[in-house]
Amino acid sequence: MSDERDRAMARKGRTTGLVIAGAALAALLAPWICQGLGLTIRHEMLIYFASLAAFVWAFVNIYQLWRMRQDSQG
Fold first, then answer.
1. Which of 16, 40, 49, 63 has CA 20 to 30 A from 10's CA?
2. Is residue 68 packed enough to be buried (19+ CB in 10 Å), middle (13-18) or exposed (0-12)?
3. HSE on the CB side for 51, CA within 13 Å?
4. Among candidates 69, 62, 4, 58, which has minimal Cα distance to 27?
5. Is the pLDDT at 24 greater than 90, yes or no?
6. What is the pLDDT of residue 72?
């Protein structure tokens, strides 16, 4: 059971890391994407808000991982 739980925690950690990397990349490239595609500032702000939502989601998952690790240790 512990091995299965460790794998689930590792999978959740990798997913969270990928979401953080993707959100950061989207936020950094938002001006370039919008300029290249001819989109308005509204679309750029939409990308920023989506990135912010992804960061919040990732923060919640990091907290859940921390709690799972605390529960498994003691």
1. 49
2. middle
3. 16
4. 58
5. yes
6. 81
